[in-house]
Design brief:
The chain is α+β, with helices and mostly antiparallel strands and 339 residues long. The chain has 9 helices and 10 strands. Helix 5 runs antiparallel to helix 6. It is 32% helix and 22% strand. It folds into 2 domains: 157 residues, Alpha Horseshoe (Serine Threonine Protein Phosphatase 5, Tetratricopeptide repeat), CATH 1.25.40; 127 residues, Lipocalin. The longest helix has 16 residues.
Length: 339
């Protein structure tokens, strides 16, 4: 095994020291049919057995797609959706669309899909691509009807005033730059599980860093249960950062509790689909538990997006169950060709 890559142990220690600069769904219960929010607009997901497809029912201004266009297609395996994600090309002399291979984890009782796609290198801008290669898609419900505000005696609308005389904004209201999400009937929609706002936890940044450093120090000394306590405290100080969730996973992995380690790696992936270590670590756990098809789903996207290294993979004993498989050999060929 390569300890420097192994489940982010060394990388986690390095990450924590440099911070000054910088529950899964049961396989048989996965039901994704419904309306979902994406950067392309609102899609309706249809599910037939393990096959899943998503077509636009309301289109945002991100890409020149039309209602009815398919932008998602994949196959479920346990709580993993693997398939293709559609995107558009934008910029000077750029047009058209392509499909990107993707893998997404089914989280929050089937109300959140979190994962990554691999977009081909291009001089064009990629429409629908957020920060990094991560993808996050959230299930929608209709917004409840709001009561009309009371009218003032002069017939105007009453508006709450802030101390400076301006309007008092609702802290839960979406920013004005976001387009309102609508269904096919023009009814406003909202996410069933709203994402947390990192700005709400900025005040805890110093405490979070200190607790992470303590956890990393304990883990480096082999005191995994002590480290776990620190990492759990860090998830409370800032639940929008994935490092502490992954750290908890490492402590369980170190004790041979692979299922619990996997649960925490999944939580890290849900928190931040751009957290590369989660994909590789999950591939390792699936390999260790002899779920090779799932292992290849996450290893493939880890390799495509640069989350895994050739030498580290070859030395990592966690992947030995995969090495005789043609899919593993194909991945290595692609890695060699990309050098």
């Amino acid at each position: 095994m390569n300890a420097s890559r192994k489940h982010g142990l060394c990388s986690l220690l390095i990450l924590v020291l440099s911070l000054s600069f910088a529950l899964p769904v049961a396989a048989q219960s996965v039901k994704l049919a419904g309306k979902w929010a994406t950067r392309m607009g609102v899609i309706r997901i249809h599910q037939k057995g393990k096959k899943v497809s998503g077509k636009l029912i309301w289109v945002s201004k991100t890409c020149p797609f039309k209602r009815g266009d398919e932008i998602l297609k994949g196959v479920l395996l346990e709580d993993s959706l693997s398939g293709k994600w559609r995107y558009c090309l934008k910029g000077k002399e750029c047009s058209g669309d392509k499909w990107a291979p993707m893998v997404m984890l089914v989280a929050r009782a089937g109300r959140v899909l979190s994962g990554a796609a691999h977009y081909k290198a291009s001089e064009c801008n990629i429409g629908g691509k957020g920060r990094g290669d991560g993808l996050a898609v959230r299930k929608l419900k209709r917004k409840p009807k709001q009561p009309k505000p009371p009218k003032q005696p002069d017939g105007g609308t009453q508006v709450a005033k802030a101390e400076d005389g301006g309007s008092q904004a609702d802290p839960n209201e979406a920013t004005t730059t976001q387009e309102p999400m609508l269904d096919e009937d023009g009814q406003p929609m909202e996410e069933e599980v709203k994402p947390l706002n990192p700005e709400d936890y900025v005040k805890n940044a110093g405490d979070w860093r200190g607790v992470m450093e303590q956890g990393a120090a304990q883990m480096g000394s082999g005191f995994f249960e002590r480290a776990r306590r620190h990492f759990k405290k860090a998830t409370q100080l800032d639940p929008t950062r994935p490092e502490a969730f992954s750290g908890i996973g490492v402590t369980y992995y170190a004790r041979g509790d692979y299922e619990e380690a996997l649960n925490w790696y999944k939580k890290a992936l849900e928190v931040d689909p751009n957290f590369g270590d989660a994909y590789y670590n999950m591939a390792c756990i699936y390999s260790l538990t002899k779920k090779n098809s799932l292992a290849f789903r996450y290893l493939h996207i880890a390799v495509l997006n640069g989350y895994a290294e050739f030498q580290a993979m070859e030395q990592d004993q966690d992947l030995k169950n995969l090495r005789a498989d043609k899919r593993y050999k194909d991945i290595l060929k692609k890695m060699k060709a990309a050098k």
